[in-house]
């Protein structure tokens, strides 16, 4: 089953969001317009808007307002991806060429800034102070997380806490924020909005851990980038942390990355095979499942509704994701 | 509102231990800070609000300037400085939003965001070397330099300050670029124009730039003397820094 099936009934609202996304980033300059819509055309799960819609449906659902928040969140996410591709020197994203690859770094910087500003201009129409406080705080934290990621690159002696804090900022925070913003916009009581934030946080943690697992277990075709790419970039993810407990993997990884620029395809294949032979993947799934259980628990006290069931289904789907 | 105090407050906001270790401290454009302070000082806003507007607008300017430093290649010291330059710009942008969210100023969030959008449109025109004439090229440069401040001036209903601010920021940019050419023989901005104008070289371009600077300085001096500006806004243009630039540039042009 596909993830989109769990929230198929949202299609009409999601189509409206897609339309609004496209409308908001129509720059006048043809290259800026083309570059801004490039990532949009590449598609994506639109998981953040989905969370805004679903949590919004738990309260006073005003589609126009909910849509504004969902569109802005997705644009902020997109702007950060355009800049991330400059940071990672990435040529492909979601299997499609990146803005940085089609044009260059400079255009990618202007495009990211343009999309980011479009998002803020758009969400400024929402006059709920808490919406802006929550979102702006998340945005700063998101960047701090990325700075931390660069700081921790090729640091083989980091611990689990470093990793969890990093993925919290990298992924979980924006999903948690999506859930909370949907709740705030739909005027849910604070305790419910906080529960939904927790749900989003746990789901985000689980989602990122599985993403980090798939980096080793999926094919190039499934990933849209080479397997083991995170490790190649020096990102020490959960499977690597577990695998590092194995002495031969530990010494091989440190030796291989003595000079990261010289790591080749064969080295990476050897590392991936070695990692798969340890318990790293199994243990990582175990941690991911612990977060999923917490996500489901956070939802329990909320009143029963179709949207709540969908949030539960999404959690279960994420737990079973294998590609 | 003291410029040095403002500068210090902005520097405090920009501080980040890890970024400071690997990338150059962002430059605070003092002339832009002066103009902005002049505009904001001319309003009846409470001091705290004035400070917040100056800090957030300057953060946006610094974020944009920082992203202009991201090159298409890695530098000699590897890719880390480039990566952190991207993130530094994003961090300063995030801070502007965060600070205005704290004071629930949704309108200013929108004003600054609209300015960022427009500036990037002009930057693209320059980057894609679209201007067909040197006047058009300079018009775009002027827009990139002044749009942010002009949006704030409009928002604060300081229309009288717009013209002089726009001209002053433009002249200042030309002076900066000219000085860079004299120091290192190169200006990335001027290169964008020279690339499209094969008959032009740095000598002929600098001559045109000097002429424009001279004309604009005369215009500005007239503007100051005809009493269009209120006493409080005029004061900022008579600070030692501005006076020094005006005097130096006038004599440099006169000396030929």
TrEMBL record, chain A:
Coiled-coil blocks: none
Keywords: Magnesium, Metal-binding, Transferase
Record flagged with keyword Cell division: no
Pfam family, one: polyprenyl_synt
Known cofactor(s): Mg(2+)
Signal peptide per UniProt: none
Entry annotated with the keyword Transmembrane: no
Family: Belongs to the FPP/GGPP synthase family.
Protein name: Heptaprenyl diphosphate synthase component II
Lineage: Bacteria, Bacillati, Bacillota, Bacilli, Bacillales
Gene: hepT
UniProtKB/TrEMBL annotation, chain B:
Pfam family, one: HEPPP_synt_1
InterPro entries: HEPPP_synth_su1
Protein's recorded name: Heptaprenyl diphosphate synthase component 1
């Amino acid at each position: 089953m596909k993830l989109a099936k769990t929230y198929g009934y949202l299609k009409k609202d999601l189509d409206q969001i897609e339309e609004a996304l496209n409308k908001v980033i129509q720059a006048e300059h043809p290259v800026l317009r083309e570059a801004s819509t490039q990532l949009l055309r590449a598609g994506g799960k639109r998981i953040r808007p989905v969370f805004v819609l679903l949590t919004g449906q738990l309260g006073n659902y005003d589609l126009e307002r909910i849509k504004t928040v969902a569109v802005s969140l997705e644009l902020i996410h997109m702007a950060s991806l355009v800049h991330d591709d400059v940071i990672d020197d990435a040529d492909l994203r979601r299997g499609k060429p990146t803005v940085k690859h089609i044009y260059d770094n400079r255009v990618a910087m202007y495009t990211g800034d343009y999309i980011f500003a479009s998002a803020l201009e758009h969400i400024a129409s929402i006059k709920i102070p808490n919406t802006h406080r929550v979102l702006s705080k998340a945005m700063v934290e998101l960047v701090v997380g990325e700075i931390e990621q660069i700081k921790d690159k090729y640091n083989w002696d980091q611990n689990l806490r470093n990793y969890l804090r990093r993925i919290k900022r990298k992924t979980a925070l924006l999903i948690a924020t999506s859930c909370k913003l949907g709740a705030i916009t739909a005027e849910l009581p604070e305790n419910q909005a906080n529960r939904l934030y927790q749900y989003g946080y746990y789901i985000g943690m689980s989602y990122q851990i599985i993403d980090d697992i798939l980096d080793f277990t999926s094919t190039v075709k499934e990933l849209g980038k080479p397997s083991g790419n995170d490790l190649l970039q020096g990102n020490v993810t959960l499977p690597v942390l577990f695998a590092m407990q194995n002495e031969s993997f530990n010494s091989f990884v440190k030796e291989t990355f003595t000079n990261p620029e010289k790591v080749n395809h064969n080295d990476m294949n050897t590392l991936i095979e070695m990692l798969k032979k340890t318990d790293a993947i199994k243990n990582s799934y175990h941690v991911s499942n612990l977060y999923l259980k917490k996500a489901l628990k956070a939802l329990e006290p909320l009143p029963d509704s179709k949207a709540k069931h969908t949030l539960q289904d999404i959690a279960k789907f994420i737990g079973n994701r294998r590609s | 509102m003291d410029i040095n105090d403002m500068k210090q407050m902005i520097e405090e906001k920009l501080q980040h231990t890890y970024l400071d270790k690997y990338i150059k401290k962002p430059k605070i454009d003092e002339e832009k800070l002066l103009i902005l302070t002049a505009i904001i000082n001319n309003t009846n806003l409470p001091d705290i609000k004035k400070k917040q507007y100056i800090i957030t607008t300057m953060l946006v300017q610094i974020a944009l300037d920082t992203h202009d430093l991201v090159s298409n290649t890695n530098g000699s010291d590897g890719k880390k400085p480039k990566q952190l330059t991207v993130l530094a710009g994003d961090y300063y942008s995030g801070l502007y939003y965060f600070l205005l969210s704290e004071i629930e100023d949704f309108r200013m969030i929108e004003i600054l965001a609209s300015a960022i959008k427009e500036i990037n449109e002009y930057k693209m025109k320059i980057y894609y070397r679209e201007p067909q004439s040197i006047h058009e090229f300079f018009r775009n440069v002027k827009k990139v330099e002044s749009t942010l401040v002009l949006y704030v001036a409009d928002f604060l209903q300081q229309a009288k300050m717009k013209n002089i601010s726009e001209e002053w920021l433009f002249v200042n940019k030309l002076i900066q670029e000219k000085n860079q050419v004299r120091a290192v023989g190169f200006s990335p901005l001027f290169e964008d124009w020279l690339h499209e104008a094969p008959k032009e070289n740095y000598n002929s371009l600098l001559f045109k730039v000097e002429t424009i600077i001279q004309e604009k300085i005369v215009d500005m001096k007239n503007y100051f003397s005809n009493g269009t500006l209120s006493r409080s806004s005029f004061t900022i243009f008579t600070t030692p820094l501005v006076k020094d630039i005006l005097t130096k540039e006038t004599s440099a042009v006169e000396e030929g």
